[in-house]
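Weekly modeling sync, notes
Attendees: S.R. (lead), two postdocs, one rotation student

Agenda item 3: backlog of single-chain predictions. S.R. asked that every request posted to the team notebook include the full sequence so nobody has to chase files. The rotation student volunteered to paste the first one in as an example of the format we agreed on. Action items at the bottom.

Example entry:
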Amino acid sequence: MNIRELHEANRQGWNEGAARYAEAVEQDIAFLRAGGKNFEPPEYPFLVDLADWCGRAIHLQCAGGRDTLSLWNQGAREVVGVDISEVMIECARRKSEALGAPASWYRCDVLDTPSELNGTADLVYTGRGALNWIMDIEAWAQVPARLLKSGGRLYIYEEHPISWIWDRAATVLRVDPEFGSYFDSRVHRGQGWPDTYIGALDKPMEELASKAERNWTMADVVNACIAAGMRVERLEEHPDEFWDSMPLIPPDVRKLVPNTMSLLLRKEQV
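Predicted structure, as returned to the notebook:
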């Protein structure tokens, strides 16, 4: 299968998984209406003072829009969400309409993010389980590069690529027998969702869409962004998790290794 076919398979999978997001729409509206911000602690230092400098924030792979609208609550004057799943986009649209938020939503493969958005973003935001669904990291990096204004910022908060190697069913940190190479560049196909995220749906696993994931090393991501014309300003590694990826391992053990990363880049001034 080619890249577009793999992304399309993922669209079908995310349309299925979006059922859990749809169940939480009213809860998310209440959370956001109360000023809620759905960020993890390591993210806040990278998202300070948005009201002072961020006219438009574009969230790539925005899912149901909870994080996108959190950028608005954090101070961005306007937000734009892009996602491949039409079910996710409908969830996001329902939230922004209920809140009267200055938000726009685009249903497309992230690689096809509309050119009308080029050069309009002060901030492009993405992460928390986004890059593993992308099959071409160099093509992906060209997207934030063209969306950003000169001097604009790209902030990625993502699962650390070393997390790929661990056996998620183990009770100790142990290399997974199948995914145990940090440099594994294979595309992995699978059905269903972890119990700690989405979990069981309303049909048997063997009837669910087959989704495609792959790991990108730190170097893969950084070098793709540099090649696209962005400059690294800060790279951090965090013990924090954004989902319960290794539920059988005690938290104090999980924190011995990096679980997430922050990458801040700026589009070169022209």
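Discussion: group reviewed the output briefly. Helices lie at 3-23, 25-33, 50-53, 66-73, 86-99, 137-147, 218-227, 251-254.
Action items: rotation student to repeat for the remaining queue; S.R. to check formatting next week.
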